Every structure is written in C-alpha cells, then in structure tokens.
Amino acid sequence: MAVGSAQNLVSRWGSGGAAVAAGAALLMLTACSGPSAGPAAGPSGGAAGGGGAQSDAIKVNRLVFIVGTPGRTELDLRFLAEPYVWPWRGTYDNLVAADAKTGKLVPGAATEWNVEPDGQSFRFKLRPNLNFHGKWGPVRGEDVKFGWEQITLVDSVHGQMPYFKNNVKSVEAPSEKEVVFHMNKPDGILVTAVSDYQGGAEIRSKASYDSQGAPNWKNGALAGSGPYLYKEGAEGQFLRYERANNNHWSGTPDFTEFEWRFAKEASTRMAALLTGEAHMADLPNDLMAQSEKQGMKVYRGQFPGTRVWASFRCCFAKDLSDPSGAPMFPDSPLMDKRVRQALSKAINRDEMNKAFFAGKGEPMYLNHFQPTRLGWNPDWEKRFKDMYGYDPAAAKKLLADAGQPNLKTAMLVKPLPGVPGGEDLMEAVASYWRAIGVNVSLETVDVAQANLIARQFGYSNHVTLDATGSNQWSGSTIWNSGVTHLGNGVESPRVDTILRQIGQTVDAKKQEELWRQAGDFAYEDFLGAPMFWLPTEAIGNPKVVAEWTYPGGITGAWTHIVNIKAAAK
C-alpha cells in the first residue's frame, strides 16, 4: 500500500476499501473450495454453512479460530516473547489463574499460596488431582522448578526472563505437591508473575522433556495439564489441539478439537469465516461490521484489553549501575523529550479512532496506567490536551526549539498482536509526522530479528507501534525501564528508582503511593506516545458458537478458550 497523507489513509479505511478486497477474496475462496492442499487449510471438522447464518445450530468437532499471523510461532516457550505465548493458554496451566468475569487472581494449578516467615519466599500448594496429558503423571513441584529453569536459560528470549533470572534466587520442591520460590529480596510481584497475566511460568512436564528433549516441530510440544492438549501444527500456519478429557478444574471444552489458524490478510480471514472454513475470526472493525450483516456475532471481552502506543527506541542507560549517568546514545534526537512530545502532539487520535476502530478505542492518557489500575492520577486526563494532544503547530515549534525542524527517524513495521491492520496504523502515524516536516522511513522487520536487535541495543533513533494487554508491572518494566533493560523504549532513571521500590513492596497502600509517583514522572518525561485502549472483540458464527466469556485484558487477548460454548442443537 502506498503511503499517502494521513487523511487519505484513514479515509480509505472509513470508506470500506478493505471490505471490497474481502469480497474479492471471498469469491476466490468459494471458487477454489475443492480438496485442501495441506493440513493448514484442511477440513475444519464440520461445515459452518455458507455466508449467512443457518436456521439450526451447526455441530462441529473442530472449532477453527482464524487470527492474524503472530510475530512468532514456536513450540518451545522460552523462544516466545511474552505477547506471542497466547496460543498455549489452553494447554499449559499457571500456578495462579485470572477469573474470566472479574479478572481477579484466583487459584490455578495452585490452590493456595503464602509468604514464608522469612518475608521473601513464597510457598505454593498444588492441586492434588492435577495431571499432565498422556502418560506423564501428576503435576509436581519439580515440574514448576523445571519451567523456571527453562525460562532462565541463557538463550531464552522471553520478555519475563530478566525478572525470573534476577529476582528469583532459587526454586525448591520440598514435596511433590509443594513448590517454594526463594526471592533475592522482598517481592510484591511474584504472584502476578506466575499467573495468567504475565507469562513465563507455564507448567510443562519435566518427564516429557527428559524423554523427548527440547520441544520442536519434529518432536512436538511438551506435555501440559490444561483442558486442551497439543496435537499438531505447522510454523506460521496453524496450531491444533484436542480435548484432554482430564476433568480440568477450569471446565471441559465443548469442542473435541480446537485450531488456531493463521492468516496475515484480514480479507482472507473474513472469507474463511463467511465460507465456513473457520468459525471464529479476528477482524478489523470495517470487516467485522460487514460480517455482522452476514449473520455473524461479536464476542467481546469483559475489559479493555489491548493498548496501542508508539515506543521510542532510543534512550537507555549506558551503565545500569549508574542509571543517571551517560546515556547509551547521547546524540539521538529522541533523547530530547521535546522531540518525543512533538511526535505525540502530531498524531490525530480522534481521526484514527473513528477510521480504524469505529470510535471504540478508549483514550490512553498514560501507557501502563488506567483508572482501574494502581496510582491513577485524574490530572493526567485534564492536562492531556496541552501535554500530548493533537496540535501540529505546537509540534513544529517543539521540534524547532529542540533544534530538529527536519527530524529524521525510522519506524519499524511489524505485526501488532491483537490489532488487525496494524501496518496501516503505522502508515497513518508516519503520515502525521511527515505533515510536520519529519523525514520518517518505514522499515519492515521480522519480529524475532527485531527483538534480538533490540536486546543488543541496536536501535538508537527508531520508533515502533506496539500493542499488548500486559499488566502494570510487566508493561512498565518490559517497555520503559532499566529494571529489565530490554531496549524496548525510553528508560527514565527517576521512574526506575520508584519501580525498584515497588518491586520490593508488599504493602498495598505504599504500592498505590509509589505507582502514583512513578506515573507522574513518566507523564512528564514523555516515555511514549499514548494512543488507545481497545476492546477485545472476535467475531464468529452464532450457529456454531453460542457465547464466550473471557477477560480480554490479558496479554495476547485470546484466553479462556475452554469457555467457548457450542450453540445448542
């Protein structure tokens, strides 16, 4: 797609241009619906009918949910950055779960947990009748310890590896149904870190690893204990699971099999849904509206889930032992917070919200913070127009004052997890910046390679649009902090100081005060360009799927698939 003005780009979306492409793809798919060429496009276990809803419920054995192609699809979880672990949510249990309706932390693989008398160790008691799939026996404390050892291996690229490596001193399994995390210091984060909200502590069978070796496309995945077990897959194409029939504590799936099918083009996903090749889909708003007119139904998460913002890849501490000392890239124009403020004020969020999200996006006033989260300051909303709001003239003046009237930078183009049409969003933002005189180039990157370069601090004057549903701690530390030091965004020394205090504080009142202080500093330092909190929505055939209750506010968005209920016959 050629890059034009921002107004032209958003008008193309608003006029339903993508729906025209979807219609063409639908005609092609209908004409070519003969025998499939391979497993990724194979039979879905039961036809969902043609484009319109049928008069009776349709029984399918394999539920196919087609989504955008993730940045990475791997069987070895330590090679998945946090936003890409979501396809395994139904296969592996975490110690602590998230309630599908309230989002509150509740028992998962562990029935209870407590802080030990030393004040910095946590003991978890495992469910007595929780077993791994197949022949691999009960879930034991040793299996939890094994998972921790895996994520902290030197080749792990998981976003939570630094936390589990640096904060956890050791993991002990004093009995088969107990596990103790010994922390390096008092820690107020661990319970969330081993929950559905964060990722990295998914429980895998050590015995299956000892038998087959590291998981890969040839050996298959390691055994888990969730309601679905891994059956087969192809990298970047599909992942297929079957019902475990293990009387799982979260419930028994209605569908015998479940498949995540991947397709980059939204028009392809819509065509698959309307022809019955898939039964649920992740679509942008214009195609979702078209699909609703064809009899499809929207399934919305309980909470705003994915948030979208622009990250400035530039501003890192050269020496973590002296975070207030010399920066790694002192000559980067993005080091000047006036430049970062200018780029934020050049974005017309209202226009983008209407064009891309049908006005459903909630304004984000400060990344990682929301009124329902700790430390919220209502003044941020009141001051947003002056500090961050759309004002091209003010943006140009800020650039001139910073000595950067002809700023040069680069935007890295990559998929946005949970946000269809992410590349078009990036083009729109780049167009807004060009309108104030910024020379911004668009560079398409491979996610795995980009993550590697970021961890090696290879980006010094670059911007990305990012999307995640991460919780407040992991979001703040992964994207904007030297606490993990991953090269993902602006690191503020004074924010880091507060985050380190939060990480050692278990007192709720004190945490609230510290989060407010960290938020105030982050707001003033323009650590990113906040954009939207988006509702999490999928669309499907109501003759196949009756309902789906899921939080929507967890990284990866698509969780609690055990709750996808079949339409009654």
SSE topology sketch:
Blueprint: H1 6-14, H2 17-31, E1 62-67, E2 96-98, E3 105-107, E4 110-115, E5 121-126, H3 141-151, H4 161-166, E6 168-175, E7 178-183, H5 190-193, H6 206-212, E8 228-234, E9 238-243, E10 257-262, H7 266-275, E11 280-281, H8 285-293, E12 297-313, H9 337-345, H10 349-357, E13 362-363, H11 379-387, H12 392-401, E14 408-413, H13 422-434, E15 439-444, H14 447-455, E16 462-468, H15 472-479, H16 493-502, H17 508-525, E17 528-540, E18 545-547, E19 565-566
Parallel strand pairs: 1-10, 1-11, 14-15, 14-16
Antiparallel strand pairs: 2-3, 4-5, 5-7, 6-7, 8-9, 9-10, 11-17, 12-16, 12-17, 13-17, 18-19
Overview features:
Dipeptide-binding Protein, domain 1, single chain, alpha+beta, disordered N terminus, Dipeptide-binding Protein, domain 3, 20% strand, 569 residues, 19 strands, 4-stranded antiparallel beta sheet, 17 helices
